[in-house]
Amino acid sequence: MADSRVDTLEDRSDAVTRERVAETPQVTGAEATSAPAEHGTAVFVADKVNVHYGSTLALKGVDLEIRRNHITALIGPSGCGKSTFLRCLNRMNDLIPGAEVSGSLTFHGEDMYAPHVDSVDLRRRVGMVFQKPNPFPKSIRENLAFGMKVNGLKANDERIEKVLRHAALWDEVKDKLDDDAYALSGGQQQRLCIARAIAVQPEVILMDEPCSALDPISTLAIEELMRQLREDYTIVIVTHNMQQAARVSDRTAFFTVEQPEGGGRHGILAENGDTEMMFRAPKDGRTQDYITGRFG
C-alpha cells in the first residue's frame, strides 16, 4: 500500500513538472536570446565573485542577482561551487579556515563583507537549512524557543504556534511540543528546522539540498512548504534534482566546472535566468547537456 502511494506521488510530481514546462511557449531563434520581463527587486547582487580556499580557486567570476520573493535554484554537477556560493550569502565561509571571498557581493545594496557588517546579525537575517535535518537534542518547543530568546524575541506559546503553522507542522505536533525532536520523522525534522530558521524572523532562507535525505512523500511536503513561504521570504535552494528545480523555482542558476589548460579546476556560473525559459530553451550548450542528462 505504501509503495503504491509513493508511486502515485512520484507520478503526480512528474506530471507537475511536465505541465509547467508544457505551459511555456515554444521559443526559437532570436526569441530565445531575450529573457522575459521579471518582477522583484534584487536582494543579493554578486559581481565577479571569486572564492579561494587557501591558494586553491574554488569559484570564479560569479555575476548573479537573487530577487525578492523568488525561489532561486542553484543547479550543476558535484564540485561546481553551488554550496560554496550559497554559503557566501550568509558568510558561512568565514567559518572555514583559509576561505577568502573577493569581488563584490551586496545585500540590499550594502557590501556584505565590509568591516562594519556584523556577520552574526547577517546570519539571523539570512537563515540556513542544511542537507540533513539537524534539530537540537531538545524538545520541539525548546528547538524554537532557543533561537527566539537568543535574538531577544518572546518565546511564548502563541509565537511558537504561529511559527509551526507557518512551517505546516502545527497540526502534527501540537499535542507533543515537549517531546524530543528526534522522535519526529525525517520530513518532520526538516520542517522543524525550517520553522527554527523562520522563528528568528529572517528575510531570506537558504536551503542546501534540503530534500536529499528525504522520501518522496516528505520531499513533496517540503516543496509545497517552499511555495507557501515564498510569499513572505526570498528562498535560495541548492538541488541536484532537475525535476525539483523545474517544479518549485522561479529562477535557476546553472553552475559548472571549468578546467583550464594549465591544470586545476574551479566552478563558474554558466547561465542563469527564468526557470521555464532555461529548461525550455537554454542559451548555453553546457546547460542543455546537463538538464538533458548528457553529463553530470
Describe it for me?
The protein has 296 residues and is of the alpha/beta class. The chain has a domain at 39-133 and 204-291: Rossmann fold, CATH 3.40.50. 36% of the residues lie in helices and 24% in strands. The chain has eleven helices and ten strands. A ten-stranded mixed beta sheet has the order 5-4-1-2-10-9-3-8-7-6, with helices on both faces. A hairpin with a 7-residue loop joins strand 9 (251-258) and strand 10. Helix 1 packs across helix 9, helix 4 runs parallel beside helix 7 (186-198) and helix 7 packs parallel to helix 8 (216-229). The radius of gyration is 20 Å and the shape is globular. The protein starts with a helix and ends in a 5-residue tail after the last helix. Residues 1-39 have low confidence and may be disordered.
List key phrases describing it:
globular; 10 strands; disordered N terminus; 296 residues; ten-stranded mixed beta sheet; 11 helices
Number of strands: 10
SSE string, helix = H, strand = E? Answer: HEEEHEEHEHHHHEHEHEEHH
Radius of gyration: 20 Å
Pairing-aware structural class of the strands and helices?
alpha/beta
Mean pLDDT: 87
Distance between the termini: 34 Å
Helix content: 25-40%
| CATH architecture descriptor text of the domain at 39-133 and 204-291 | 3-Layer(aba) Sandwich
Low-confidence stretches: 1-39
Tell me the number of helical segments per DSSP (H or I, 4 or more residues long): 11
- The CATH topology of the domain at 39-133 and 204-291: Rossmann fold
How would you sum up the major sheet? Answer: 10 strands, mixed
